[in-house]
Specification:
This protein has helices at residues 2-27, 54-67, 70-87, 92-97, 120-123, 130-139, 150-169, 179-188, 192-197, and strands at residues 51-52, 107-108, 111-112, 177-178. The chain is mainly alpha-helical. A two-stranded antiparallel sheet has the order 1-4. Strands 2-3 form a two-stranded antiparallel sheet. A hairpin with a 2-residue loop joins strand 2 (107-108) and strand 3 (111-112).
């Protein structure tokens, strides 16, 4: 069983480690005109429904199982239920329009409860102007874009594509998933990691049409 878990969780962990290193390599360049302005407690980008790959969802679900208290797990299940009820039947564009009403299920007191295993989409959501992020959030303008380096967003696109391709090569479910629905489906299963590696369909909450990175 541990070999099964290590194979799936290692796939996500390695991809996320590569993501962090690629970001560090880029931001270490002295020629960058402005530094990344993100800091702990700056959570405006966390009012989104992140899109994740199956390996990332499995890694996060496993982390929750091992580290969350029973109370935290119950609170998470309640948050998942609320988000799914609000987003049920809506397109990605419709969800984006109400994103300021939908904090991530792992946002608590302005901080990420799964920061260590947060997905690539969150790691690469960076800004060079935190004050602008605040202004956009308070305006409720869902069409506004954060001020960021596009190269870092390109890192996300590469990592997501690579993870999807590796899932397909392994004969495993490779659909892109909304975070809340992915975690809902994870906790429905008995052995989701092993079953995913066996090629079974674990996740139902699929992103059915193109959406933004978050």
């Amino acid at each position: 069983m541990e070999d099964f878990k290590n194979k799936a969780l290692g796939l996500a962990s390695n991809a996320l480690g590569w993501t962090d290193q690629a970001i560090r390599n880029f931001t270490s360049h002295e020629s960058l005109p402005e530094p990344i302005d993100c800091k702990p407690g700056c959570h405006y980008c966390c009012f989104n429904q992140p899109v994740v790959t199956p390996p990332e969802a499995l890694l996060i679900g496993h982390h929750v199982e091992r580290t969350f208290t029973d109370h935290e797990k119950q609170a998470l299940i309640h948050s998942i239920k609320n988000v799914v009820e609000v987003t049920n039947g809506k397109t990605p564009d419709e969800i984006a329009m109400i994103r300021y009403e939908l904090p991530c299920i792992f946002l608590k007191d302005g901080m990420c409860m799964v920061y260590k295993v947060r997905p690539a989409v969150c790691r690469t959501c960076t800004s060079i102007d935190a004050e602008h992020c605040k202004d956009v959030f308070e305006s409720g303008d869902h069409m506004a874009r954060l001020r960021c380096y596009h190269h870092i967003r390109d890192i996300f696109q590469r990592v997501q594509k690579d993870l999807v391709n590796k899932c397909r090569e392994m004969g495993c479910q490779s659909d892109l998933l909304f975070m809340a629905e992915a975690l809902r489906d994870y906790f429905k299963g008995t052995n989701p990691i092993e079953e995913w590696l066996q090629g079974k369909r674990i996740f139902d909450g699929l992103v059915k049409s193109p959406t933004s990175a978050l």
